[in-house]
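Hi R.,

Quick one: here's the Sphingomyelin phosphodiesterase 4 sequence you asked about.
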Amino acid sequence: MAGPYLQQPSFLLATLKADCVNKPFAQRCHDLETVIEEFPAKELHGIFPWLVESIFGSLDGIIVGWNLRCLQGRTNPTEYSVALDFLDPSGPMMKLVYKLQAEEYRYDFPVSYLPGPVKASIQEQVLPECSLYHNKVQFTSSGGLDLNLALNPFEYYMFYFAISLITQKNSPITHHISPSNSAYFILVDTYLKCFLPTEGSVLPPPSSNPGGAIPSPTPRSPAVPFTSYGMHHTSLLKRHIAHQPSVNADPASQEIWRSETLLQIFVEMWLHHYSLEMYQKMQSPHVKESFKPTEEHVLVVRLLVKHLHAFSNSLKPEPLSPSAHSHTASPLEEFKRVVIPRFVQQKLYIFLQHCFGHWPLDASFRAVLEMWLSYLQPWRYAPEKPPQTAELLPRSVSEKWAAFIQENLLMYTKLFVGFLNRTLRTDLVSPKNALMVFRVAKVFAQPNLAEMILKGEQLFLEPELVIPHRQHRLFMTPTLGGSFFSSWPPTITDASFKVKSHVYSLEGQDFQYKQMFGTEVRNLVLKLAQLICQAQQTAKSISDHSAETMASHSFFSWFKFTPSEMNGSYTGNDLDEIGQDSIKKTDEYLEKALEYLCQIFKLNEAQLTQMMMKCGTAQDENGKKQLPDCIESENGLILTPLGRYQMINGLRRFDVQYQGDTELQPIRSYENATLVRLLYRLSSALNERFAEQMDVLCSREDFIGRFCCYHLTNPHFVHKIRYSPVLKDRTNQNWGPRISLRFLASYRTLFSLLMLYFIASWFYIGPVGCTFIILFSYFLYAVIMTFFFEGRKPHEH
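And here's the predicted structure, written out as tokens:
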């Protein structure tokens, strides 16, 4: 009987693999649900690793799995609904997890796929401080040097779920997919709400045996040290999973072990890609970046941060009596109290530091910015609601958040300085960049927030001599990432010591703190204010230029019937394509940001007004952009670093124009090269053949003469040749009246003519009639232009 029974799992696995090829997705999930309900745990044990991999993909990214990150209800409603139901915390997959959990099965997870700092630590035989890895590291059964983690079914499932966000980077994601609407994003939110509830307690797992209980994994024994870095190498080998004590029914661990495990896995897989030592090394520009988070990754982390704030803020008010607190507080309530400082703060800080220093200088940084701002504002996720009468007024930050701000001081101050340094290198004329400056300034300008940050800085800078009894103590924090049930030092009541402990634990004892409200950062803010003024003037110049262009160009300019663009030197900006509304938005964002910065840093209004006047008077009389910042030398003008920055970001430009014959300009990207050459030959032949006749026509004093003079000559080019001996000597061609046909080589012109002929054929006008309409319309346009611009003069430059 033993032989056939042992063959059942492989037969079941083979059947399920065949179903993946032959059956539709919904049918496969229904069959899996039936298998999970009817088969015993011993047989399901053999298919569990394959099933997890087939859902979340392989660790090397080759197998995509269900591709939950691209699965959306709008595009695939049936598969989306089936997948969410199957993976729901009360769905078939979690029932399978709990069924295997009851039998205490273990599954191997390769250490080589863990985040970089964890993998390096374990491979060096140093146990990481996070209790998630304790008593789990073991060698492979083959006796090689590869290491595995022996995980219980719940841990194994969540490891694969969390790491699929990282390993499946190369999966085909189209641009129209919104990460926040994907099945993966919804599942993250569902698991957080289930295992880290803001109301009530964690729902108990379903039991396959009536009256039975699903045991929790081994409680984290306080005897196991959690500052394991630097321990003797042989100690790692003694922490084999087989030597762990037997599972017992600890009521506290039974209540929240899944909550703690879920949070630790999410934090380790999503945030622990940079250790403090690695982060300090990454400050060098010569060090190659080891891990690059994606925008989707950051959005998921923001979801985690927002929920943890809500979870922590749902903590019940403390009783007045300390003795009553010790008897009535549940493990879940105690977990809420320490969840952010103990499990998240350090790893999130290093993660944000890396993003601020290495993220591309483009609009995608908005995701990182919003995640940072979400962490800085836990009051947004507090259960209490602001008074309805004060909805239109800025909500003042309550004093009860002072402790959070002080214990997260670097999150506010050092990252703000990092944001300033990024902003000084970006183009603030762009609406998206202007919006980011506005968002940060608005958050930090909330009433009472700047004062509390300043108070935190004062506590940190408080001389140590003021409190003699603290001089012998080292600034240490409780172990970050340790188990909730491990020993926890007594609460530190001294506010100054708390702030110093926070700063030195994140940056080290030798850290040189840069005050947010000090002189150095204030100078950076003044530079930013100056750039904001310059960006406002630049946006105004672009707006004025766009308005002038729209006013001076008629409907026919869209068809390239006028060659004026060939002589223009304006290079434009992305605002030209966005439109006037976005230009106004940019100006509004920058104006409000400047106002908020003045509120935060108490900037001198007279100094700011003088700076704005200086920026305003720096514009030339035509409202165009001034030249980049330069210095004069023997060899002419040389760009300064500020001038290079201005040119790179499009804030200022040199007025470079083509100085030769407009007919001989380089072929543009919007022109057909073959047509340009053919039309040039044709126009040259016509000009050579009818040169004398055109001279006679242009010399007439009547309307015909004025008409021909306007449309057959290029006054701007003639003016340049006439007053430039160099150009006069180099130009051998006739610069009198001539015909120019190059505008017909524009793709836009060709497309316009094609559309006109298509419309004409639709109304049965015919090609001849359409040609007549075009020529007659252009003739009317030429006559009007002749009358209105008869005395036009070439622009002086």
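The mean pLDDT is 76.

Cheers,
M.
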